[in-house]
Amino acid sequence: MENQRRELFCVNFFTLLVGCNVLALITASPDVTDQSSSLSYFIFPSTEYPKDCHEILNTCSNTQNASGVYKIKPAGFPEAFEVYCDNDLDSDGWTVIQRRTNGFINFNRNWLDYKHGFGFLGSEFWLGNEKIAHLTNQKKYQLRLDLTNAAGHSYHVTYDDFRIVGEWSQYSIQSLGDEGGNAGPFIEWCPSNTKFANSTCERRCTEPNTCIPLASMESGRCICPDGYMIQGEDCIPESQCGCFVQEKGSVLNDGESFVNSDCTSRVNCSDNRLIHEDDYRCSDDATCQERDGVQRCICNDRFEGDGITCIRKRPLKDCYEIYNTGIHTDGVYTIYPTGWEDSGFQVYCEMSTDGGGWTVLQRRRSGSVNFYRGWNAYRNGFGSLSGDHWLGNDKIHDHTTQKTYQLKVDLTDSAGSQYYALYSRFSIGDEDDKYTLSLGSFSGNAGYNSMGSNSGDPFSTRDRDNDGTDDCNCAQRHQGAWWYPRRYHNDTNHCFKWYGKGYYRHCTYANLNGDYQYSDYRGIFWYKLSGNDCGIAGTKMRIRPVG
């Protein structure tokens, strides 16, 4: 047989027949239906079955050479089986081994189906490889293929010595012989490595990912199959294209690059040939990773560049700088204040209120988080940034000493009314300075500058008493942690218990880290807050740069 693969255009009806030494042939009738009741069946009284349809003609004269279903038993086959005999050609005695007319039967089947056969003899069917092998190995048979195209033209191809072998050799074609028939005008020979199919575009080695539209929209044509591409006038395996990359398993477009799995080399496609960059290496500030389906060097967070060279981005020091990049959604973000350029830390940023860019230092909305804690807890911070929390005195110090910040204290009483206190300047010292508070001028509708007396005082916790007195621990008395003044005040207008000998002395006019909604001196309070110093249901401390 020739090496080129033969392809047929627009086949509607396809019938395979085998006959003994038959030369003159015509097409099979295309109007066969799937109604087996219209078939003629013939039974012979002889105990020996004919070996094929050609022998049936000499077995019983009452058939009158009619086409129909007969039983035959080829030599060596264990039992007789039914076949369709076509006697309507110029030379009778054709055994039909396959017929396709209307797509009624699915031919996409497995090995066993093709071995034993499937379909209906009166409609579409495959006789079965095992039966065909026994049939074609007992004599010399001619194969005839009758075809009808979409335009209704019928034609046929013949091979004068057709034989297949058994399953032991995968039913391969052992012989075909010489070709004949009248199909010449209807057959087109597809070039090597192509197949006949419907297609509206083709792909080339130089543009492997681009579907190039065809000049004409034909119903079928010779195209490159999967795994092949056009180079010049030929259809070649894509592995032979100039920019095929073995590790990628595909072809690069001109100008595209590919980086290997560990980012130690890169190849570029230029003029349909690969150019290797063996010195390709990731920067120390980059990571080899896949992004958007492409393996490459990616600069680490806070760095920018092509992955080979990475330059540190200017670190965003607070929520206000993040806001100015165009991010206006509340949430948790990482900032990099002075001293934290390498690691940074997370804060909750309020971006949608009061002009945005606020860093939240403290929030209380429920009693879910215990605020009566020790020095280390307040130094490092605790709680959930999205809920109740204290950011941490070390972080607050580093944050507030890099710029001039204003402080806004938001207060909500038990009735749901909201108030605020705004301080023009806010910062605290470091741990050696006991996180001493520094405040600017006061404004707002909170009723009284309740934190003003705390300015200049160190921070105190239950286990670190920095209030300057020997006979009282203000943090313990108020069950919190705060910048308690180094002096006491006698003030009967505050929420303290009466024990008959006078009011307890209190340490501060503001105590935002006390017990949640506790009704006296150990609770959350802000002096002269609309006549209800205690009973505060919500607090928030947030800062933003001045100006």
Explain what the structure shows:
- Strands 2, 3, 4, 5, 6, 7, 8, 9, 10 and 11 form a 10-stranded antiparallel beta sheet that branches. Strands 28, 29, 30, 31, 32, 33, 34, 35, 36 and 39 form a 10-stranded antiparallel beta sheet that branches.
- The protein has 547 residues and is mainly beta.
- Residues 1-14, 20-38, 42-46 and 488-504 have low confidence and may be disordered.
- The protein is elongated.
- Helices cover 7% and strands 34% of the residues.
- The protein contains 7 helices and 39 strands.
**Tally of contiguous helical segments:** 7
Percent of residues in β-strands = 25-35%
- Which residues sit in consecutive blocks of at least 5 with pLDDT less than 50? 1-14, 20-38, 42-46, 488-504
| Major sheet description | 10 strands, antiparallel
Summarize the structure.
With 547 residues, the chain is mainly beta. The protein is built from seven helices and 39 strands.
Task: Supply the key terms.
ten-stranded antiparallel sheet; 547 residues; 34% strand; mainly beta; elongated; 39 strands
Secondary-structure blueprint of this entry?
Blueprint: E1 6-8, E2 11-20, H1 53-56, E3 68-72, E4 81-86, E5 94-100, H2 111-116, E6 118-119, E7 125-126, H3 129-136, E8 141-149, E9 154-164, E10 173-175, E11 179-181, E12 187-189, E13 195-197, E14 201-204, E15 207-213, E16 221-223, E17 228-231, E18 234-237, E19 244-245, E20 250-251, E21 257-259, E22 266-270, E23 273-277, E24 286-291, E25 294-299, E26 303-305, E27 310-312, H4 319-323, E28 331-335, E29 345-350, E30 358-364, H5 375-380, E31 382-383, E32 389-390, H6 393-400, E33 405-413, E34 418-428, E35 437-439, E36 442-444, H7 474-477, E37 510-511, E38 525-526, E39 536-545
Antiparallel strand pairs: 1-12, 2-5, 2-8, 3-4, 4-5, 5-7, 6-7, 8-9, 9-10, 9-11, 13-16, 14-15, 17-18, 19-20, 21-22, 22-23, 24-25, 26-27, 28-29, 29-30, 30-32, 30-39, 31-32, 33-34, 33-39, 34-35, 34-36, 37-38
